[in-house]
Fold this protein.
Amino acid sequence: MVRSGKNSGQLSTGQKIWDVVYPFVLMIILLILCNFIVLLVAGLATATYDTSKILENAPSAALWSTVLFYILFLILVRRNFKVDEMRFGCDQNHWPVWKNIAVTAAVVAAGEAVNLILTKSGIAKIFQGYSNAYSVTFEGQNIFLLILATCILSPVAEEVGFRGMIYRRARNYLGPVAAAFLAAAFFGIYHGNLIQFIYAFILGLILAFIYQKSGSLKLCIVSHSLLNLMTILVDQMGTI
């Protein structure tokens, strides 16, 4: 990692690349580790080591893995994020309240619109990975655990990682446009299947634009959180 006292211009190309990709690499490693730990514990508890049977017998295992992952990630990057604040300056939201509210509403509307387009396009029938991931995440879950994972921890950890660290670091080397596309691509890859890649890539570009213009990571977190909450509400209404 780059120390706070070192000038970015003194870094080699390899150091700059590692500076940008480090948060993503850490995320993937932690995600794999947390999945392994929770599935192992759930397997011992349910007396099976078949992943599909574990998720059938303990449907909340996937969410507990997610919760553990987000908490560990935020703990591990806390110091790095503080160093980045010294490198790039602390966030300062220079938008008025009404604009923050309007932008948040626009993000939720845009996210739901993209989600609707992808759903109606029929692409989910071609790529089954999305349906499987969706059912594991949302179906039959405890609503309070679901909200904790997707509306509280997820927006904080993902915005810190993708916008607060990857985007800001890449912007320092590549400029805001290239950085936005790079961070959005990482955000899409992180979601693990083509449909969610498209959705997350578009959302990532929108959030990077908001972060660049508003100067506020908190606004991105709130917008991300409300969008995830809207997704849960729409899903719950569809099951009534």
User: Anything to note?
Assistant: The mean pLDDT is 87. The chain has ten helices and no strands.
